[in-house]
Amino acid sequence: MAKMEIAPLRPWDDFFPGAERFAKPDISDLVKWNNRVVSNLLYYQTNYLAVAIVVFLIVGFLNPLGMILGGAVVTLVFVGSVWGAENKVMIKNFKKKNPTLFVLAVMGASYFLMSLFGGVMVFIFGITFPLLLVFVHASMRLRNMKNKLENKIEGVGLKKSPMGIILEALGQQEENFNKIQDFLESKLKE
């Protein structure tokens, strides 16, 4: 098993270079779009964490109690969903068959619980807004060769990162692992 490594903070001109490195995703090809998002999440994970922390701190400064409550609820729902997916067959099968729907269900459950506590606006701006920013960037940012190489290394299992572990727990990398494994097996047979 590979040891976990924190991805480096990518330079600003690589993270947000200009309009020529961004393109609207092809929504008719969901597999390709999902691969782009997963690749960018893995490659720019430290940059995304920095952006999320900045937004989180701004909202947390404006409403600290709501932010602590929101963070606790989202963390508990996430940990509970991962535990359920590992220990309950029905949830495990649902996650395997519908990984994107599983992630949406986790977010929906978090939203529902926050509405019970009256912290929906804190949830939307402090937790969901940074996730939306990350998702939009990961969807629009075109991959480069360094991005693809880093993702292949992680996909093969030569290294692990925090985002890779989170994506694996949510079932978002299984397709990539299978494709890489098939590719490597075909090359070995040649």
UniProtKB/TrEMBL annotation:
Membrane-topology annotation of the record: Multi-pass membrane protein
Primary subcellular site in the record, as a coarse category: membrane
Membrane-spanning segments: 41-62, 68-86, 98-114, 120-138
Keyword Transmembrane helix: yes
This protein's UniProt keywords: Acetylation, Cell membrane, Cytoplasm, Cytoskeleton, Endoplasmic reticulum, Membrane, Transmembrane, Transmembrane helix
Keyword Oxidoreductase: no
SUPFAM superfamilies on file: MFS general substrate transporter (SSF103473)
Cellular compartment(s): Cell membrane; Cytoplasm, Cytoskeleton; Endoplasmic reticulum membrane; Membrane
Family matches, as InterPro entries: MFS_trans_sf, Prenylated_rab_accept_PRA1
GO process terms (BP): negative regulation of transport
One Pfam entry name: PRA1
One GO CC annotation: endoplasmic reticulum membrane
Family indicated by similarity: Belongs to the PRA1 family.
Protein's recorded name: PRA1 family protein
Organism, scientific name: Albula glossodonta (roundjaw bonefish)
